[in-house]
Write a structure and sequence with these properties.
Helix content: 10-25%
CATH topology of the domain at 43-158: Uridine Diphospho-n-acetylenolpyruvylglucosamine Reductase, domain 3
Radius of gyration: 17 Å
CATH class of the domain at 43-158: Alpha Beta
Number of helices: 3
Strand order of the largest sheet: 5-6-10-8-9
Distance between the termini: 48 Å
Shape: globular
Largest sheet: 5 strands, antiparallel
Order of helices and strands: EEEEEEHEHEEHEEEE
């Protein structure tokens, strides 16, 4: 049985679950459903750069700014959100546009591995060699196929560039800002 926050048991077939990462929306409650279980991924942080394989491992609860700040000193970049405040978790599951889209393609095509918790509670890697059918389905399939806890993204050489995207440091919308990486 799954237990809701208030302690009552709810049958599996009727359990409704929301999954929340670091978020793409600046408003409270955007990645949530009222009166259901919310799985909060915001503590799944961490970025680790594998320089030999040109891959960055990113926790699904992180924000793109942390990823960019890790890559920039190395002269590297990866496809990701246009705002450094956006959460990492959802963009690579929904296709994903980035500043590098015309050169590197959608964000999802630059993911080399997804770490996923399946409905059975088994944790698997999903890539071209392991669980390849799930790997293909996750590219645009959203979070309907499991809970992605880590993404491994391809990196590439990139010098300084400038881009403008809307950003917000509070729950109020703010004007677009220019960000230099």
């Amino acid at each position: 049985m799954i237990r809701q926050a208030h302690g009552r048991a709810c049958p599996r077939q009727k359990a409704r679950i929301a999954i929340r990462g670091a978020g793409c929306q600046p408003l409270p409650g955007c990645a949530n459903i009222e009166d259901v279980i919310t799985i909060d991924l915001s503590r799944l942080l961490g970025t680790e750069l594998d320089k030999e394989r040109n891959i960055i491992h990113v926790g699904a609860g992180g924000r793109w700014g942390v990823v960019y700040n890790k890559l920039h000193p190395e002269g590297l970049a990866c496809t990701g959100a246009r705002s450094s405040l956006n959460g990492v978790g959802v963009l690579p599951l929904s296709g994903g546009l980035s500043f590098f889209g015309t050169r590197e393609g959608f964000v999802c095509y630059n993911v080399v591995n997804y770490e996923v918790v399946l409905a059975s509670s088994k944790v698997v890697n999903s890539n071209q060699n392991e669980n390849s059918d799930l790997f293909v389905a996750l590219r645009g399939g959203g979070n309907n196929l499991g809970i992605v806890t880590r993404l491994d993204l391809r990196t590439f050489k990139q010098g300084p560039f400038s881009g403008t995207a809307p950003s917000s440091t509070s729950h109020r919308a703010s004007p677009a800002r220019s960000r230099h990486w």
